Amino acid sequence: MFGIFQVIDGGDMDINFFLQAPDGRVLLTESGKSDAAHKFTADIEGDYQLCFDNTFSRFSSKLVFFEILSDENDDENTTNWKNAKEELGTLIDMTVDDFQKLIDNVQTNLDQTELAQTMLRNFEARDRNAQEISFNRVNFLSAVQAFVMISVGLTQVLLIRSLFDDRSRLSKVMRVKT
Predict the structure, then answer these.
(1) Can you give the pTM of this predicted structure?
(2) What region holds the GOLD domain (predicted)?
C-alpha cells in the first residue's frame, strides 16, 4: 500500500499523523509535517485507522488531501492472462509473461505520474490559498491606511481653516495665548 497526505490550507500548514494496524500497533507516525508519502505493507486483514491530529492548533482548521493506493493484483485480470497465454505466445516473439511485465511496468509508471500530478495540483492549491490570504490582508491594510491618511488630511485642513476664522473657538484660544 502507498499513502500520501498534504496540508492544502489552514494555520501553519502542518499536521500530526499516525496509522494504526487492526491489532493496535502504530505503523507510522509524523509530527508537524505539511506533506509526506509512505509505503507500507498491510500484513494483517482488518480495518486500519488513519488519524490526522490538529489538536495543537486550536484556532485554525486545516484542509488535508490524502490518497491511499493499493497495489493488489486483480484476480480477473490474472485469469484472463492465463487463458490467453498460449494464444498470444504464438502470435508474437515475446512471451506473455514478458508482455505482462511490460504492461505492469507501464501501469506502475502511469500511477506514479498521476500521483506526482496530484501532488503538484495540491502544492498549487496550497500556494494559491496562501496568495489569496496575503492579497486580502494587503487590501485590508491598504484601505485602513488610506482611511487614516484621508482623516488626517481633513483634520489638518479643518484645523488650519479654523485658525483663520474669527468666529472659531480655536482661533480665539490661539489669540489669547499669543
Answers:
(1) 0.46
(2) 1-70
Cell numbers 468666529 correspond to: 167
Kindly state the greatest CA–CA separation across the chain. 117
pLDDT tier at 153, thresholds 50, 70, 90: very high
With 80 as the cut, is the pLDDT of residue 91 above it?
no
Which of the four pLDDT bands, split at 50, 70 and 90, describes residue 146? very high
Mean pLDDT of 68-97: 62
Reading the block at residue 35, the C-alpha cell is 506533506
User: Which pLDDT belongs to residue 155?
Assistant: 92
List, as own/partner pairs, every contact residues 51-60 make where C-beta atoms lie below 8 angstroms and the sequence separation is at least 24, other chains included: 51/17, 51/18, 51/19, 51/20, 52/5, 52/15, 52/16, 52/17, 53/15, 53/16, 53/17, 53/18, 54/11, 54/15, 54/16, 55/16, 56/16, 57/10, 57/11, 57/12, 59/11, 60/10, 60/11, 60/12
Burial class (CB in 10 A: 0-12, 13-18, 19+), 67: middle
In this predicted structure, what is the pLDDT of residue 92? Answer: 62
Distance in angstroms (rounded) separating the CA atoms of residues 102 and 81: 13
